[in-house]
UniProtKB/TrEMBL annotation:
It comes from Dasyornis broadbenti (rufous bristle-bird). One of its GO terms (molecular function) is FMN binding. The lineage of its organism: Eukaryota, Metazoa, Chordata, Craniata, Vertebrata. This is NADPH--hemoprotein reductase. The keyword NADP applies. Its EC number is 1.6.2.4.
Length: 678
């Protein structure tokens, strides 16, 4: 037995070696597999990581290449006047184009330029060009902010310590007097350029869109050019002729896959959607709900829900949603008929200035129908430069003279334009109908009409509660003009006809989100006072939803006070059930509603603020409440602000100027925010 046992190892030795061999081979296979697997994973993971930064590089090839120097471009093309524009809705860009076009009358050459495409620090080198001048057409957006395309320029101006002593400049600002910070951007650019040593050759122009922006511009422009002539010692050449900026190319044999059908940037971007989504690449959102909010009255107030699932779009309560509408097809067809044009002709309008960054006035090639439906503004009264350029096509001498007079700077002409075009709200179709001899070529008309702009709406939902949908609250615009025509708001009537759960374009809305400064306080425990009559309630529905969600998360939520107003309780009380539910749940701590027409004397939100003045002061002074105002800028926002001056003056024992200063300080600290429109 002992021998047997002692021999066991000897006998099993070959077995154990074989076992070890097989064990090693298994280990080898395992290790090799593991290494191969890790290498493969690393290789693909690394590749993915590298691809992300590559995307912008790929995109920049497609996007307009940023010319680092507008100076080099001006030298190369023999220009001496550059007109920069800060434009949100296209008007400042339009004015800049008109000024750059004017230059040839004085033996000068101008170019309009988007500040986003150039390095503005080159302004210090403009004096290298003889008889050089920089003009700035600067619109103010929101609460005294620069427009999106002028943000970088604004940041540079704030930080710059450049010496601009050789620069000659002039500024025309575009603003609206109903807003708190009237023409803030124009005023800032004018003041800052002077501080940096630049020489102002003509006074700052302040255009007011609440009055007559077109007239303000013409008045400024007719004094601006004589000042330029005097400064440079040049004279008008007398050339008043119409100069085409684009040439027409008609495509008879074209691949329809290369034709734009309404896209804003990339061809076929609506068929092949790729994030990120923005103004040049909107997302096609499906309308999942479209319901009428009001019970009666002649108006149509509506609540829409846009599905943003799988779009990677993020939004915060208080942001704005921008939508690209389409013009009414009957208006488009009537323009085609009156001008005797086949609207389905495919064409391109190509810039005659080959050096220009702007190759076409809108995406080309496209059809006249697409251009008039998606790209051009055919419903607003045309500006005087359009009338001036069209006058040459009127075969009746009286009509031609009338058009030229309205485009002139004479007092009589301005008055006629104001009465016959602006106040009568005559759009291009109405003008063509009322001037039977005026039949311009459709391509020239398309060149002259401004671009159809996106419309902004305050988002009426919270992304905490509705991460995959954006809600809109809007009222359809419809009114009779002095000529007896029925004018309809482009976007609201287009949205009204969006049918949920239907395939095809009838339920799709091209949109993107624009960030805003209209934000709930960082601390949920901070009280909020929200004032929003009519559709001004929109962002507050989002705010209240968010406060309810925060409360559900166990957060301490401060007082949430709403001042809302409408015409009649049983007619247009928006979101009545939702507000009642929020109040019942204890999220909405105060609901104050003003019905302006339910009694003999009108009652508005500011009257309810006065009625509750002690409580309002306590929330602001002791509770450090944040105040939010949304809605009409012209009357409501101003009246509400004046009411706050009165409350602060009375309970804070301050004089009127001290009370005004107190409220202005609240604004500076972000405790008094506005989201208003006129």
């Amino acid at each position: 037995a002992m021998g047997g046992s002692s021999m066991d190892p000897t006998v099993s030795a070959p077995d154990s070696t074989a076992q070890q061999d097989s064990l090693f081979s298994m280990m080898d296979v395992f290790l090799i597999s593991l290494i191969t697997g890790l290498f493969t994973y690393w290789f693909f993971f690394r590749k993915k990581k590298e691809e992300v930064p590559d995307l912008p590089k790929m995109q920049t090839v497609v996007a307009p290449v940023r010319d680092s120097s507008f100076i080099e471009k001006m030298k190369k093309t023999g220009r001496n006047i550059v007109v920069f524009y800060g434009s949100q809705t296209g008007t400042a860009e339009e004015f800049a184009n008109r000024l750059s076009k004017d230059a040839h009358r004085y033996g000068l050459r101008g170019m309009a330029a988007d500040p986003e495409e150039y390095d503005l620090s080159d302004l210090s080198r403009l004096s290298e060009i003889d008889k050089s001048l920089a003009v700035f057409c600067m619109a103010t957006y929101g609460e005294g902010d620069p427009t999106d395309n002028a943000q970088d320029f604004y940041d540079w101006l704030q930080e710059a310590d450049a010496d601009l002593s050789g620069l000659r400049f002039a500024v025309f600002g575009l603003g609206n007097k109903t807003y708190e910070h009237f023409n803030a951007m124009g005023k800032y650019v004018d003041k800052r350029l002077e501080e940096l040593g630049a020489q102002r050759i003509f006074e700052l122009g302040l255009g007011d869109d609440d009055g007559n922006l077109e007239e303000d511009f013409i008045t400024w422009r007719e004094q601006f050019w004589p000042a330029v002539c005097e400064h440079f010692g040049v004279e008008a050449t007398g050339e008043e002729s119409s100069i085409r900026q684009y040439e027409l190319v008609v495509h008879t044999d074209v691949n329809m896959n290369k034709v734009y059908t309404g896209e804003m940037g990339r061809l076929k971007s609506y068929e092949n959607q790729k994030p990120p989504f923005d103004a040049k690449n909107p997302f096609l959102a499906q309308v999942t709900e479209n319901r009428k909010l009001n019970e009666g009255g002649e108006r149509h107030l509506m609540h829409l829900e846009l599905d943003i699932s799988n779009s990677k779009i993020r939004y915060e309560s208080g942001d704005h949603v921008a939508v690209y509408p389409a013009n009414d097809s009957s208006l488009v067809n009537q323009i085609g008929e009156i001008l005797g044009t086949d609207l389905d002709t495919v064409m391109s309008l190509n810039n005659l200035d080959e050096e220009s960054n702007k190759k076409h006035p809108f995406p080309c090639p496209t059809s006249y129908r697409t251009a008039l439906t998606y790209y051009l503004d055919i419903t607003n009264p045309p500006r005087t430069n359009v009338l001036y350029e069209l006058a040459q096509y009127a075969t009746d001498a009286g009509e031609q003279e009338r058009l030229r007079k309205m485009a002139s700077s004479a007092a009589e002409g301005k008055e006629l334009y104001l009465r016959w075009v602006v106040e009568a709200r005559r759009n291009i179709l109405a003008i063509l109908q009322d001037m039977p001899s005026l039949r311009p070529p459709i391509d020239h008309l398309c060149e002259l009409l401004p671009r159809l702009q996106a419309r902004y709406y305050s988002i009426a939902s919270s992304s905490k509660v509705h991460p995959n949908s954006i809600h809109i609250c809007a009222v359809t615009v419809e009114y009779e003009t002095k000529t007896g025509r029925l004018n309809k708001g482009v976007a609201t009537n287009w949205l009204k006809n969006k049918v949920p759960d239907q395939n095809g374009s009838s339920s799709l809305v091209p949109m993107y989100v624009r960030k805003s400064q209209f934000r709930l306080p960082f601390k949920p425990s901070t009280p909020v006072i929200m004032i929003g009559p009519g559709t001004g309630i929109a962002p507050f529905i989002g705010f209240i939803q968010e406060r309810a969600w925060l409360k559900q998360q166990g957060k301490e939520v401060g007082e949430t006070v709403l001042y809302y107003g409408c015409r009649r309780e049983h007619e247009d009380y928006l979101y009545r059930e939702e507000l009642a539910r929020f109040q019942k749940e204890g999220v909405l701590t105060q609901l104050n509603v003003a019905f302006s027409r339910d009694q003999a004397e009108k009652v508005y939100v500011q009257h309810l603020l006065k009625k509750n003045k002690e409580n309002v002061w306590k929330l602001v002074n002791e509770g450090m409440a944040h105040i939010y105002v949304c809605g009409d800028a012209r009357n409501m926002a101003r009246d509400v602000q004046n009411t706050f001056y009165e409350i602060v003056s009375e309970f804070g024992n301050m004089s009127q100027p001290q009370a005004v200063d107190y409220v202005k300080k609240l604004m500076t600290k972000g405790r008094y925010s506005l989201d208003v429109w006129s």
